[in-house]
Write a structure and sequence with these properties.
Elements lengths: L12 E10 L1 H7 L4 E11 L2 E9 L2 H6 L1 H8 L19 H8 L6 H5 L3 H7 L4 H46 L1
Antiparallel strand pairs: 1-2, 2-3
Length: about 170
């Protein structure tokens, strides 16, 4: 499963987990059931809850999603990248629950849905909701330089305050 959107972003959501798998060779050899814990990954395309692939983890999965795999190995919740739908004022609570049920958890995932995916998971008003999500992302991207500049100004103000305090201590 290799779904990359037209903007080049990876749209597949990996969910790493441990799955018990019967070891046929050892089960027959020892005359009892022998199971091994094997790393698996569910590959989910947002908006398509009928086409979920569950496969044993391979190096290509570890290389494609190193952050999520590292979180899995550390027994942490895999980080979602983007703005969580719960934190976005542009959507109601019931829509958040509905979208979460089809593995759409961020504004970016919603904005990146294709028309066919949108028709499956948000049949009524989906296009308007996706457009709203896209506008939110565009606005956030447009405001990013201002936010970075504001952060830099705060850092410089803190440095200046420390320098003035140090100068006051030296003078005293």
């Amino acid at each position: 499963m290799d779904y990359v959107a037209p903007d080049g972003r990876d749209r597949v959501i990996p969910r790493f987990h441990i799955k018990p798998v019967r070891n046929n060779f050892l089960s027959e050899k020892e005359g009892r059931e022998v199971w091994n814990d094997v790393e698996y990954v569910e590959l989910i395309v947002p908006g398509d809850n009928k086409n979920i692939v569950d496969v044993a983890v391979k190096d290509e999965h570890r290389d494609r999603w190193p952050t999520k795999y590292a979180a899995f190995k550390a027994n942490m919740e895999a980080p979602e990248s983007g703005t969580p739908l719960e934190e976005w004022a542009g959507i109601g609570r019931s829509q958040v629950i509905e979208l979460n049920s089809v593995h759409i958890r961020t504004v970016e995932a919603l904005a990146g849905l294709s028309d066919s995916q949108l028709a499956k998971c948000v049949p009524m008003g989906g296009h308007a909701l996706r457009a709203k999500a896209q506008r939110f992302i565009e606005q956030t991207d447009a405001e990013k330089p201002l936010a970075e500049m504001t952060q830099r100004i705060r850092e410089l103000e803190d440095k200046l305050a420390l320098a003035l305090e140090a100068k006051k201590d030296v003078a005293a």
